[in-house]
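Much of our argument rests on the idea that a fold can be written as discrete symbols. Part of our work consisted of pairing the sequence of a single chain with a tokenised description of its backbone. We regard such an encoding as a compact summary of how the chain folds. The amino acid sequence and the backbone structure tokens for this protein are reproduced below.
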Amino acid sequence: GGGNGAVPPKPTGSPVTTRRDAPSINTTNINTLLVAATQHVERKQPSEELQDKLLFLFNNLSTSNLQEKIEEFHGLFGEEYYEWVAQYLVMKRVSIEPNFHNLYMNFLDTLNSPLLYKAVLRETYRNVKVLLHADKTSNNFSDRTILKNLGHWLGMQTLAKSKPILHIDLALKELILEAYYKGQQKQGQQELLYVVPFVAKVLESCADNKVFKPPNAWTMAIMQVLMELHAVPDLKLNLKFEVEVLCKHLSLDMADITPGSFLNNIEKAQTLDQLSCPKEAVAVAVEGGLSSGGVGGGGGNGNGQGGVAPGQGPSPSQPLFYYEDINVSSLAGLVPHLQINGQLTLLQQFPQLKQYILPAVEKAVQDLLPPVIDRSIKIALTTTEHLIKKDFSLDPDTHQMQLAGHNMVHHLTAGMGMITCREPLLISITNNLKTSFTTALRATTEEQKSVVEQAAQQIAADNTELACCFIQKTAIEKSVAEMDKRLAEEYEIRRLTQNDGRRYCNTAALTYQAERMPTELRMQVGGPTPPQFVVYEEFTRTLPGFLPSNVPAVAKDMVHGKMEFIPSDEFMQILGKCIQEISQHLRVALAPPNNPHILMMRLLLKMSMQLKISRNFSTLLTLLQKALEGLLEGMNPPPNDPELFVTFRDCHLLILKMIQNPNGLSADVAMRHVTRILLNARDDIKYSPRAIILLIGLQIVDMKQLDEFLAKAIENGRNLIALSCSIKLVNAIVSAEKRETPITDKDLMKTKETLYKLAAGIRSLPESSAQLLEPFRLDHDIRLTSALPGMDELDRAPGAPPTSSIHQGMISTPELEDPPGLYEKVEYLLSEWVRHFHQPGRLLKEGDTIYAAYVARLQQQGILRSDDLITRFFRISVEMCVDLCYRTLNEPSLSAAMARAKCYHTMDAFVKLIVVLVRYSGEPTNTVTKINLLNKVLVTVAHVLIQDHESKSTDFYQLAYHRFFIMLLSDLCAPDPVFDTITLPVLHAFSSVYHILRPSRAPGFAYSWLELISNRTFIAKMLLHSQQLKVSTLYHQLLIDLFKFLAPFLRNAELTKPTQLLYKGTLRVLLVLLHDFPEFLCDYHFSFCDVIPPNCIQMRNLILSAFPRNMRLPDPFTPNLKVELLPDIAHAPRILPQYTQHIPPNLKKDLDNYIRTRAPVSFLSELRGHLQISTQPGNQYNVSAMNALVLYVGTQAIAYIHSKSSTPSTSTIGHKAHMDIFQQLVVDLDTEGRYLFLNAIANQLRYPNSHTHYFSCALLSLFAETSVEAIQEQITRVLLERLIVNRPHPWGLLITFIELIKNPTYNFWKHDFVHCAPEIEKLFESVAKSCMPKQPASSTQEESQD
């Protein structure tokens, strides 16, 4: 999106353009081309001034100024610079700007310089070959994208202009063959990922050329090779897609192209070398950088010379070890693979130094192992967990879910470990070796230092890969157990349902998929389809950092929960008989050979023969899919010839029975796959009642899943195909019951009930649906069922304002087509208003007259005749304004400031129109009419925004909407007698629509949304008079929306740049609130801390540091400060909204009983069970319930102590029911739960009040009473981590920590964890000095030494 309502910035990493479609961010990396350019130093390089002029020329090139720029080019560059210009154009422009290929080609054509044209063509071929020769073992997406772009450019230069691509320059057929052959050798398809998209882009230019378009023999020969490649069973889906898109672009039917046999020519493939890397290129790659003869204008060191920037780190090296080679049971596993180069000068002179190499490597591994494993596993587990739970939410198969999780977490952990530790390992090993060698040699000369440096770097480089693999494998093996822990609950649910004989169904996931996901992306009951599961199988093929042949996939030989298919002799005999029968049917068939049903039978025979040859599981699944899809397609409609109908049906049923046979997949496995394929088939063949009835008869389809699917498909009564199919199936089942078949009345029960409901409300259905359902209304005794539940209410926190009117408007926004001529009418009326608005002098003098005349014009045109027309008027007007903004922002001739001004020109006029209509709607005192109109406008704009956001996706611009809301709010909140009376409803309306447009609903609007809710006018109106207006709860809800959106991102330690911007903006909003409206943060601190992740310490400190403006905060560093004597310490703070509802009712009842009677004792032991909700690390506890419980118990304790005319202290709070609960929790909870519990206490350490006093005493008491040092250490950690971040620090936190380290009662400085490491000890001393500036440093040091 646009970002904060501004025009998106132009890219700065490469030459930028001001033309249309310029990308906002350029992520393509041309390093491979830059490095290879060092071979061509003979090019004459222009001066820096000329280079800058060429850069400026291309930056501003457009169709409108083409001739002007060509004349400018002629005046700047002579023929001696053409080689350099060609290199610049191809490398810096064409390779990364595919959207401007036509513009650059027009430039060359208009320039009409054969010399430059040939130079550009040569440069194109050279760069294509550089990329084809580049290393393809790593997944370099940039190189693939650039090669694809150059393919498109090459096609435009040659084929589109009827010029051939000569075999001597580039042999496309042989290129595909070589890529295929090398992919087979390496058991991968990396070369094909480069070559196939490149060839497809080259051939695209044939489409509009009379010479090369099909059926040109040269073109068709290449297409036959691509079709042969398309038929390869294990070919990646994206490669198949490239071929299919090319066929569509060339208007070719894939069925008409006969696949060749070119890829079988292994002898020819062995002689090809178009993808080989020449030695010269290798040498250049080693040297790196750009010579002075390189292309200027793109980076470099300031003098026109490029180069690899220092500190970029080593490029990814080739894997050296198989996974099984590395033994990670101990560090001794490094010894067999340690590389020591005896030829090094240092080791020849001092061979005794070899003994320091292994310890240096071991130390580097030991130092990096914990943080790398923790980071790698954390990221990999979180990513895998979310994806697995989403993709397998509807899959009952525990084993398949576990297999996918293991495969994915293996791959991600390996990748994360590799990229995290490789460079730190190299640096660490080098430093360790230098230190050891220097120490061992003692007095070293400058020459020895140089030799030591070189030797350390060489040895480190030789052993970095080994150390990296050791860390990777250690992390991988730990990740499997952790993955199973995270998914344990999912496994258990599925096992329980299976043991109980029930069918697993996640109703929440099913409802979410059905209601919110489009059909193309919707997950189906039964889990991922075979093509979808291929994604998880791909994770087993290669493991980052290891050689590919021995991948450690868990259950590597398992696919879809079944051992890799090893057909028995019995199965092969059945398959042979099937092939014979299908062949016999085809021989005797009287239908013509091109009959569609005959062609499908031939395909079935071909796939059966492939299975006989390959004998693998993937071919078996492909055959099953072809048989099932063929049956669905061929029976809808069936063949006209009765004999052909029987033959076609029997051939397909023959295959299904064979696969269903116990020697094949078995009945259960076959049923699962058949059901999945059926429910995910194309809509035009899926609803084939004849075929489904045959499948039901074979008992090869899961009736429960089919029932749920059909019921969902017909629930609105508008899917006529599904409705007709469901009626026929229900009727067929009724007749089948009469024939005493295995089908019972319970089959398709939900489908029947849905049909009954539709029939009961037949009058509200379209006529076509009503005609289909009429028999049900006549033949069955309909029971009227309760109405289906309506739309869910907006999720909101307790105490949030109702948004029903706004939300109802969102639901009821009309979707029907607009009346003819309405668009033109609105366009005329809007343009007329814009013209009036931008005559400020006339508006000032005759404003009321103009307004009245325009409203009369709206009435005359019928716009104000009905609510529907008013809504349509607003919607079309908004769409026009937004469309104008999109067109303006993409206008190449306008600067950013001019573009914004042009956008504002119309949008500001539209806003003023709304203000006028609100002002003059109804009587001056009739506020209801004005607010209803405002709500209608806001609903319409929100509706347009959401639709625009969903359709534009990443191309969404926020500018127009941001300007609309900010200007409308400003006008409605300006001092005005009319608007002053509706301030509260206006704020309510804006808050409600902002809640609807919250970042989780429209992420692309997040930046503007944050700016809107932090607008000074909005905050001031919402909070400045909150006591009178009672609207602070509205603003509280908006901040909750913001925190909830940020929470998943903030849990990640490293924030992306967009998230950093949003986070910084949030902190600034909190700082404004802390400075100007601290009472607001004081009141709502509990609910804010409830949704902020525990690791966001500074954000939480900002909230907890707030204190009332009328309070004078005592200095926490005052010696002998008597907290209990402070005047405010006995007053209880206000907590909003009501927090006790977060405590489960049963728990609260038992809790109140225990606090009152201190019985039963079993309550304490059962308390953890009430708070723990899962076994997944990081998500084990109900955090909201724990926070609420801690605060509730504390408030009850304070009330009890005050009732005894006492004040809280470490002596008065002990030995009571309240502290019993706290002490039980701190002992019984595990590390994660205890951390959350202690955080809940620390969240109440704020400004002087009774809560701060009590919870400070409680925390100190827990520290003093426990004898477990781990608990004391964790209490210290919770306090310390809040103090070591930047200010502000909550007052209660400071006084608690000062008391802890200062009072000898707690013996703080004598605990082992204070002295566990020198860094920790220094940290405690530093914090102690900042907290107690007057304490002598010597005393602290003496205690530390003790």
